Amino acid sequence: MMMNVLAAALAASLMQAPNDTTFAVGATGRVDVETFSGAIVVRSWDRSAVRVRALGNGAALNIRTTGSVVYVRPQSRGPAPSRAGLEIHVPAAWGVAASSPMGGIVIDGAGGEVTASTAQGSIEISRAGRVRAESANGSVQVSDARGPVTARTANGSVRIDGADGDVLAETVNGPVTLTRIRSASVEASSMNGQVSYTGSILDGGRYHFSTHNGAVRMAVPEQANATVSIYTHSGRFDAGFPITLTFGGGRTNRSEFVLGSGSARIELESFSGDIRLIRP
Amino acid sequence: MQEHRTELLSLYLDDDLAPAERQRLEAHLEACDECRTTLDELRAVVAAAALLPERQPPRDLWAGIRAGIEAPVVIALPQPQRPPARRFAFTAPQLAAAGIALVLLSSAAAWFAATRGGPAAGVPVAASAAAPEAVHTVAQLDARYVHVIDDLEAALADAGDVLDPATVAAVRASLETIDQAIAEAREALERDPANPFLGRHLDSTMRRKVDLLRRVTRVASMS
User: Fold this and answer.
1) Phi and psi dihedrals of B196, rounded to 5?
2) How far is the C-alpha of A169 from the C-alpha of A143, rounded, in Å?
3) Interface test with A, best of B22, B79, B163, B174 (most A CBs within 10 A)
4) Is A271 near chain B, with CB under 8 Å?
5) Which of A98, B27, B71, B153 is 20 to 30 A (C-alpha) from B3?
6) pLDDT, tens digit, for every residue of B55-107?
């Protein structure tokens, strides 16, 4: 394996780098990586350096730095676009912007802002700061995010396990599963799949879960203070604990009840699926 | 800027609000001149329509009505499958006779809601939990979204060659899912046009289609 350690002087304009390159960087910064095809894997480590390794025969690397941003683009040695995958190590406080039209993306431990987009492939992001992840065809999974999370796919599941900031989770075909959420603003929706939530209901928070064809399942902590609105066109509503409806039925198929002070706002909607509330 | 609650006014007139919501709305009406004006306009529409005699309007007036408005207002016709539990009801001839008055009066109120109480004109890029609701009709939503969807579908068709076939198949499957949802929501809203949940649901479903088409065409342009 070829390993080069390059000084900061290397951080010049566009350079052709060997397919395994390590160079010194500051404690904070961002790596911006794009490939045409192939997986992107980014992991954090405890060194003040970035290592970029191309995974694939015949791939070279174009690396360019501007300020604290490192741009990485694999380059094919032939006429066809590079199909090399990339493995990158960054300092723990760095952010990542990763894009691959055809390939999965895995990012672990990048504590800065993380964005990931792919047309064809799954996305897994863990232990990040702010997260924005979008796939056209593939599942999106985010765990232990310390900032706001936006996770979208058109075809596949969305799973968020552990998030402290605002959460927006959307899919067209597939379930949305939110667990260990501690946020005052959560919005999750599917067109064709179940939406489920387990987490805190913070006073003054807003929680909106909707699906067209699927069930909505929500775990409501006993101490929650929330005004809960239920809308379903042709589904059923069921609470696994005693509630007193302040409004129910009517031509809008809407029910409402209050828990505690009613401070938070919870809206649960399903066009044709059931809505069920349970205790955690 | 004060948030308007025009989406609740029809339900308020129907006495179809939860007590707490009714109380909140009445408190809001105390302080909001615009919503109070809209409520008065809606009351006038209801009163005027209820007084209209049962007679068929001249047919040639409909062409003028259609030409005179950009987005026709859907008029609620009684549906045998889902009898509306409203406190006032009109026969079909009454509704037909009231057509002109309803269009002229309630379109002002509906568009007041759509333009002053609802989202800004054009297609919103993303859902906003804080955005106030508008009173949505099928016609309004069609006017807002259909041409955008047509343009994006054409762009996607042009760009389809550069996308991986598996991606294209998945996107098509997703679009079919959304189209099915739109059809179901549209049918339900046409049966029950005053139902704010159904209007909002159709709005969000059509917006989802626009959002998906935008994202996919953006990805295709990057490929």
Assistant:
1) -65, -30
2) 13
3) B174
4) yes
5) B71
6) 444 444 434 434 433 333 333 333 334 433 333 333 333 333 333 333 333 33
CB contact under 8 A, B219 and A189: no
Distances (CA, A) of B65 to B61, B72, B109, B136: 6, 8, 17, 20
Residue with tokens 């179809």: B16
Nearest to A24 by CA among A46, A8, A45, A41: A8
Q: Tell me the C-alpha distance between B203 and B24, whole Å.
A: 25
Within 10 angstroms of residue B183's Cβ, the number of other Cβ atoms is 11
Q: Which residue has the tokens 């006779």?
A: B97
Inter-chain contact A192–B181, Cβ cutoff 8 Å?
A: yes
Tens-place pLDDT, residues A69-122: 999 988 766 666 667 789 999 999 999 999 988 899 999 999 999 999 998 999
A15 within 8 A of A63, measured Cβ to Cβ: yes
**Which candidate from A191, A250, A272 shows the least CB-CB separation from B177?**
A191
* Burial (CB count within 10 angstroms: exposed 0-12, middle 13-18, buried 19+), residue A244: exposed
